[in-house]
Specification:
The complex is a heterodimer of chains A (112) and B (112). Chain A is mainly beta and 112 residues long. In chain A, a hairpin with a 6-residue loop joins strand 7 and strand 8. Chain A is globular and about 40 Å long. With 112 residues, chain B is an all-beta fold. Chain B is globular and about 40 Å long. In chain B, the strands form two sheets. A five-stranded mixed sheet of chain B has the order 1-9-8-3-4, with no helix packed on it. In chain B, strands 2-7-6-5 form a four-stranded antiparallel sheet, with no helix packed on it. Classes of the chains: A mainly beta (112), B mainly beta (112). At the A-B interface, strand 4, strand 5, strand 9 and strand 10 of A face strand 3 and strand 4 of B.
Chain lengths: 112, 112
Amino acid sequence: EPEVTQTPSHQVTQMGQEVILRCVPISNHLYFYWYRQILGQKVEFLVSFYNNEISEKSEIFDDQFSVERPDGSNFTLKIRSTKLEDSAMYFCASNSWGQGRYFGPGTRLTVL
Amino acid sequence: DAKTTQPNSMESNEEEPVHLPCNHSTISGTDYIHWYRQLPSQGPEYVIHGLTSNVNNRMASLAIAEDRKSSTLILHRATLRDAAVYYCIPVNYGGSQGNLIFGKGTKLSVKP
């Protein structure tokens, strides 16, 4: 069964450093998303992406965040200057129109 | 966004059916009802979705009230692997496919 994959599974970085989280959505999906989950809290929406542009973004997704689909398979989330409060699990997701959303296993980001 | 109300927690015995309720009295006529679950230390997992008619798939059944103000996710035979937090989420298929807002959900415990 097709699945969303994410790399790395765990990323440790120093405060102020840039990180790029990578995702490979399911191949025939057209809608892509990033979510995050701080330990013990709810899953939070960050951004949705369709047709090579951002469709929606939350208040969390400020100027420090950016997304890109650099080729036909990858979907990336970049955090330019990480803060301690960016430590969380980051989930990528994708879906085709009108269907359920499939989530990846997540990348655990630890900012020291 | 439509608000949902779910019990904080439920318990079930293994191999018995489980009925997980959700109230969504402010749902709009074009919102689909999605259910997701999150197993411990994993990403959210799509379970099922529907608009008006009851739906069945290999994981579960979804019973939607005639007035669409509530729905029930039915696990026909609970297994230990079904222990998770279950989320009922109204989704509007606008251009962005909706940003899928996760609430607190229902924590399902399954006893052997």
